[in-house]
Amino acid sequence: MFIEIVKSKIHRVTVTEANLNYIGSITVDEDLLDAANMIPYEKVSIVNNNNGERFETYIIKGERGSGVVCLNGAAARRVQPGDIIIIMSYAMMDFEEAKTFKPAIIFPDTATNKLI
């Protein structure tokens, strides 16, 4: 049996931009992606702590060290710059493997979006 579990999580990061006039996705600082074991084009779930919105999109790599977290396209209507969000990705794995799997979870500084 396979189950879906959290693979990676960027917990409480601040939205720096919302760009409605873009094709879609979330742009994330490459430092955060590396630390959370996430990659460009990976599907992610977004939870907005400010308004309760939950939605899915995919990742675009942002400039390393910039602290950028930008929601693009239609997702830009779900956030405002300054909102605190959680970014999560999931993986399918065997039930027994899942029992011992440890997800990559990071807690950036919400003032700068830099790793603590």
Please outline the helices and strands:
Blueprint: E1 2-14, E2 17-19, E3 25-29, H1 30-36, E4 43-48, E5 54-62, E6 69-72, E7 84-94, H2 95-100, E8 104-106
Parallel strand pairs: 1-8, 2-6, 3-5
Antiparallel strand pairs: 1-7, 3-6, 4-5, 4-7
Polypeptide structure, described:
By secondary structure, the protein is mainly β. It has one domain (2-106): Beta Barrel (Barwin-like endoglucanases). It is built from two helices and eight strands, in the order E-E-E-H-E-E-E-E-H-E. The protein has helices at 30-36, 95-100; strands at 2-14, 17-19, 25-29, 43-48, 54-62, 69-72, 84-94, 104-106. The protein has an eight-stranded mixed β-sheet. The longest helix is centred in the first third of the chain and has 7 residues, at 30-36. It starts with a strand and ends in a 10-residue tail after the last strand. 28% of the residues are buried.
CATH class value? Mainly Beta
Strand content: over 45%
- Which regions have little confidence, pLDDT < 50, spanning 5+ residues? none
Helix content: 10-25%
N to C succession of SSEs: EEEHEEEEHE
Secondary-structure content class: mainly beta
Strand order of the largest sheet: 2-6-3-5-4-7-1-8
Number of strands: 8
Number of domains: 1
State the CATH topology.
Barwin-like endoglucanases
Shape assignment: globular
Oligomer: single chain
Strand count, sense and barrel status of the largest sheet are:
8 strands, mixed
Which CATH architecture? Answer: Beta Barrel
Mean pLDDT across residues: 97
Distance from first to last alpha carbon: 37 Å
Determine Rg (CA atoms, Å): 14 Å
Number of helices: 2
